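Morning!

This is the sequence you dropped in the shared folder:
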Amino acid sequence: MKEKKNYLIDMDGVLVHGKNMIPGADDFINRLIEEKRKFLILTNNPLYTTRDLAHRLQVTGLNIPEEKLYTSALATAAFLDNQRPKGTAYVIGELGLSEAIHAIGYTQTAVNPDYVVLGETFAYSIEQITVAVRLITAGARFIATNPDPVGNSEQGLVPACGAMAALIERATNIAPFYVGKPNPLMMRSALNYLDVHSENSIMVGDRMDTDVLSGISSGMDTVLVLSGTTDRAGMEKFSYRPKWVFNSVADINPKDLD
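The structure's back. Tokens below.
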């Protein structure tokens, strides 16, 4: 018998659009659960704790337990814990990031920290950015949760972590280390969290430049769904391709991909 594949699944554009579930996403998740497959829902968004994310998904109609959710904040915390256990960091971000940093035993401080950690926030502060610039110039290592330049809000596009990181980089002439997709580090961290191997796992996403790229870079098979930011014409602009393409996760039968 073929071994069942494990799944890493992007959230935005794959399972949900904002506050609305993509039709059939609940059936896809239910199929994974019924077939007893290991899976994680991934997001580059570090704003929310997994508990908050589970609730937000539940409101859309997706009942996914918080232990099945993995954010760039958790990946960043895992990276820091591996690099410098029980260290110190100046953190710019919301509860999702600060709680993840606290959970690994880090102290958050603006006094000679080991790291400056930049995430997403609902209102970037020029005062915080100024402190970050000064600390990095003084020798703090610069980490960013994800490279996304913009995010979505109910009012439209908003500056995101990548845009703020570019501002700090320009001011300090020091580039950040990005933990989130497309860095395969986040995928490896998620695979370790699930305790599975890349050769028996599939990455499902809606973006070629983050989801598919990070999946390929991590040695996984990849699925592109056309329910998000990439269409077939856009897919052809890249030098790499996903193994499978579906209109949405509603069309995926996991048994067919084993």
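Headline: The chain is about 35% helix and 20% strand.

More detail when I'm at my desk.
O.
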